[in-house]
Amino acid sequence: MNFSTVNNFIAIFICIFLLMSNPVHSLCKNPPIIFNFGDSNSDTGGLVAGLGLPINFPNGRTFFSRSTGRLCDGRLIVDFLCQSINTSLLNPYLDSLGSTFSNGANFAVAGSATLPKYVAFSLNIQVLQFLHFKNRSAELVAAGFGHLIGDASFNDALYAIDIGQNDLAGSFAKNLSYVRVVKKIPIILQEIKIAIKEIYSQGGRKFWVHNTGPLGCLPQKLAQVKHTSNDLDPFGCISSYNAVANLFNGGLRHLCQELRSEIKDVTIVYVDIYAIKYDLIANSSKYGFSSPLMACCGSGGPPFNYDSRATCGQPRCQVCDQKLQIVSWDGVHYTEAANAIVASKILSTDYTTPQVTFDFFCN
User: Fold this and answer.
1) What would the mean pLDDT of 119-125 be, rounded to a whole number?
2) How many angstroms separate the CA atoms of 66 and 74, rounded?
């Protein structure tokens, strides 16, 4: 490892330390209102609020010391991004108690995809919920209610989108061939385009779009999908699953470029989550992690510790020692420690196109 590489890792660990131990360190004095759309990667409690399905402890054990509806031992990437600009963590739109939504709302719900279009809680449904939220806010503001988001704030808000993983994973789960999954990608991307243009038509001008992570590196997939060593890449991930993720990401990157040219006065930031997460898995020991392809919370033991009959939070599941640095929390979602590294790299701007800092959106 050369001197430059050592300095890069030192800088990353300093950023991670600041995120984990003292998250409010930004100079952002007027953080943007944030509306988030997505799946379990950014669901801060929508599934529990919307369907009442329990997400049991030890989920939430690290930061919150209780389950908050996040499929993680602590904070998600979106939580770290919010804390980096001095704004409160986003409350799920479907949660009727405990929030005025003055800093925005989170429409993301675990299990969500872009298709089918009219199934709860697809991206299209989430956008429709946003439109209702916006229209209802306008009605209440006009009626004299205070502390609500007005039109100008909706126009100046940041709209974050993190979806697509379940579309790809769900297609493979239905035993579709690689070729058939690839053929679905343009339809998935079209739904994301429709969502962005609909929000744009409502005045939204600032978008933050995450691509999807290395699907073939998830312990869940490695445990459930029959494979041989020839199906794996040098780091033990399923090559075909990652190839599909990369094709989707290439299309999403092109879509963001296309929309920047097609619509006026818009900022669309594309974030390469895949590159960050794959680097974390490929170089896990350099980041202080062990067993990057094994879940911390699950059942079945090595090599993946994932069994769909006893997943994290269910009876018979086992959880690793809290002192261990593990990448995967439950076989699908990342640990808080891993999310902190991902967030720190996002904040570096090395993985965003254009290279925009997150506090760029502070007013």
Assistant:
1) 97
2) 9
**What is the separation of C-alpha 269 from the centre of its chain, rounded to a whole number of angstroms?**
15
Active-site residue, 333 included: yes
CB distance 110 to 71 below 8 Å: yes
What's the pLDDT tens digit per position in 139-163?
999 999 988 999 999 999 999 999 9
As a whole number of angstroms, the distance between CA 114 and CA 305 comes to 29
- Catalytic pick among 79, 112, 333, 344: 333
Active site residue 330: yes
**Which of these, 289, 287, 286, 298, lies nearest to 329 by C-alpha position?**
298
Per-residue pLDDT tens over the stretch 175-198: 999 999 999 999 999 999 999 999
Q: Is 46 helix (H, G, I), strand (E, B) or coil?
A: helix
Concerning whether 65 is annotated as a catalytic residue, the answer is no
Quick one: CA torsion of 217, 332, 75, 39, rounded to 10 degrees? 110
Give the three-class secondary structure for 358: helix
Return d(Cα 248, Cα 254) in angstroms, integer: 10
- Contacts with 55 (C-beta within 8 Å, 6 or more apart), sequence order: 47, 48, 67, 69, 70, 71, 313
- The string of DSSP codes covering 103-114 is TEEE---TT--S
Q: Which one of 73, 79, 162, 330 is the catalytic residue? A: 330
- Which of 40, 42, 122, 299 is an active site residue? 40
For residues 276 and 342, the answer to whether their CB atoms sit within 8 Å is: yes
Residues 188 and 134 sit within 8 Å (Cβ to Cβ): no
Beta bridge partners of 36: 106, 160
CA-based torsion, 285, 286, 287, 292: positive or negative: negative
Are the CB atoms for 46 and 92 separated by under 8 Å?
yes
* Cis, bond preceding 121 (omega within 30 deg of 0): yes
Residue 112 tokens read as 């969500």
